[in-house]
Specification:
- This protein is an alpha+beta fold and 569 residues long.
- Helix content is 49%, strand content 15%.
- β15 (549-550) and β16 (553-556) form a beta hairpin.
- The longest helix is centred in the C-terminal third of the chain and has 40 residues, at 390-429.
């Protein structure tokens, strides 16, 4: 694709993105003061430094922080497994060598996530989602840690979607110093103006240029070639002028710095909620923005009332002009009372109901926290009990699913599934996966999510299983054939899956069959031994009867017993 075509494509996407910027700026101001970048047309970058001093009540900022922390702990906690690998063929996945290979693969993936910057980046991603409704991050290969994530903030990128509504195009715009450009792309790839500035050391870290990174589907490629310029997704870096198409020294812009490609889309464009065919999403921060604005006004009114009560406007006689009412001030006065005894008194007799105002503010604060799901994520912290069982924790986590269920489904589709696929492919390219057994050849890998919130969704099914087994247990005493309807292995495996039990705690199907065969053999041997014992006991009894005389007669007890059945002479 020609670089000018890239510029035109980006301009079209930027025009659509700018319709959202006014809302994003207001959201950033009240929820994430240090987030969002706005690249203005004159080349300046807004919101790069400085502290916000116009926030009187920071409930919105703290509540958004709690939302991001709750999502982090509930969906991608570094302290517990949150995904599991399996096969579409569940019977094959339960074979011992296959299960061992899958467990090894998922352990290596968890390790590489810990070695990378994933857990730091994903927390920031949740902040973006909760505030702006849209988040984006790149996942790239890295020589040291295997993978590396690059998070973006709204305002510095433009997105586009495919025919299915999934993000497949991103234009990232950022400012880079001359030194950064040369080190990233090489001296020879840079235009003359960059080379000249680089050769002037004081300017290498001062002068900045705008660099655009574009990743989009490549239409004009040769599938028979495997080089970077013929991969399904194209990657372009180009320099963009700040003040038109040329610089002062006549250098033409834009200037292509590098061209490459990816086998798959290397980023994840996640939306909290999407309306129709919109590219950018909507957020819970948008839902409570009105409450946050109201809260600032209420806080301002409360502070004014307190200020007037503590330091009310005073009525001072004209003869006392220049009187100081500051604490510890010294004022000269006339002992002869020439001031006429005019009093100094408050101009207004205010008695503001600060308590009522504080209660009204608290109601709005609680509304904001509920809108940002803080009540759900903090329910354990608010418990009055000193001890709480793991079962109660799981039950309380299940309640979050009621409100977060649709969000979880979208995150699974737009973030977690592509994340696992992308990580798997990068590990495969770097030979970081163990050799696969022959049974796995041609099998499709299946990903199961076992985070707290994902398990809460599955645990709903346990109540149906419990109810069904209760029915079987009640009526099987009258109809024993009901027990034949239950497959014990599938029942155990399914229930363990609902509860999130690690697969290595369950025996493989081969081991179960061996144990059952051994038990069956032991039962057969026990039955044979019991039968032999009974036969031996019968023979011994017959012998004893045969040797026992009956009342001085020559016949023995055995003959007498047989005679009683009609067998006598």
């Amino acid at each position: 694709m020609d670089v000018k075509e890239l510029v035109n494509r980006r301009e079209a996407l930027t025009n659509e993105r700018r319709t959202w910027e006014a809302d994003w700026k207001m959201l950033a101001q009240h929820f994430l003061p240090r987030k969002m970048r706005s690249l203005e047309l004159d080349g300046t970058v807004t919101n790069r430094g400085g502290l916000r001093t116009d926030i009187l009540n920071n409930t919105g900022v703290l509540s958004m922080r709690d939302l991001a922390a709750g999502m982090h702990g509930g969906m991608t906690s570094p302290a517990r497994p949150w995904f599991r690998l399996s096969l579409q063929d569940e019977e094959m996945a339960n074979h011992k060598p296959v299960r061992a290979w899958l467990d090894d693969c998922q352990d290596r993936m968890r390790t590489i996530f810990h070695r990378s910057n994933f857990y730091n980046v994903i927390h920031s991603h949740y902040n973006e989602l909760g505030t702006f409704g849209t988040g984006f991050l790149f996942e790239l290969g890295d020589e040291k840690s295997g993978i590396r994530f690059v998070p973006l903030t709204v305002g510095e990128y433009d997105l586009d979607t495919d025919e299915h509504g999934r993000v497949d195009t991103v234009f990232r715009t950022c400012d880079m110093t001359v030194r950064q450009i040369v080190r990233r792309f090489g001296y020879d790839k840079c235009p003359e103006v960059i080379q000249r500035l680089f050769d002037s050391p004081p300017k290498t870290s001062v002068d900045r240029f705008r660099v655009v990174h574009a990743v989009l589907p490549r239409n004009d490629r040769n599938p028979q070639k495997l080089d970077a310029k013929n991969m399904p997704w194209a990657s372009y870096y180009y320099l963009e002028a700040r003040d038109g198409t040329t610089t002062g020294n006549g250098l033409q812009f834009p200037h292509l710095l590098a061209e490459g490609g990816f086998r798959e889309f290397p980023g994840f464009g996640t939306r909290w909620d999407v309306t129709g065919q919109d590219v950018y999403g909507r957020s819970p921060g948008m839902d409570v923005l009105g409450d946050v604005l109201q809260l600032q006004q209420m806080e301002k009114s409360k502070l004014k009332a307190l200020h007037k009560e503590v330091d009310p406007p005073m009525a001072v006689p004209a003869g006392l002009k220049g009187l100081s009412l500051l604490p510890g001030a010294e004022n000269a006065y006339d002992l002869n009372g020439q001031t006429g005894g005019q009093p100094i008194y408050p101009l207004m007799n205010l008695r503001p109901q600060v308590q009522n105002t504080a209660l009204a503010i608290k109601e709005v604060e609680d509304k904001i926290r509920r809108g940002l799901y803080n009540d759900l994520f903090k329910m354990l912290m608010g418990s009055d009990r000193r001890q709480i069982t793991a079962r109660e924790i799981a039950a309380k986590e299940e309640e979050k699913l009621i409100l977060l269920g649709p969000v979880l489904e979208r995150l699974h589709d737009e973030l977690f599934m592509p994340l696992i696929d992308r990580t798997w492919n990068l590990m495969e390219e770097q030979n970081m996966l163990p050799p696969a057994p022959e049974e796995v050849q041609g099998q499709e890998i299946k990903v199961e999510f076992v985070s707290l919130l994902a398990q809460a969704q599955k645990m709903v099914a346990t109540s149906a299983v419990d109810q069904f087994m209760g029915f079987i247990g009640t009526y099987a005493q009258f109809m024993p054939e009901l027990l034949d309807a239950v497959d014990p292995d599938k029942m155990a495996d399914g229930y363990a899956s609902y509860l999130g039990v690690e697969t290595d705690m369950l025996r493989a199907q081969e081991d179960r069959d061996k144990i059952r065969q051994a038990k069956a053999q032991m039962q057969q041997q026990a039955a044979a031994a019991e039968q032999a014992a009974q036969m031996q006991m019968g023979a011994q009894t017959a012998k004893t009867l045969a040797e026992t005389p009956v009342q001085q007669q020559e016949a023995n007890a055995l003959d007498a017993l047989l005679g009683s059945f009609g067998g006598g002479a």
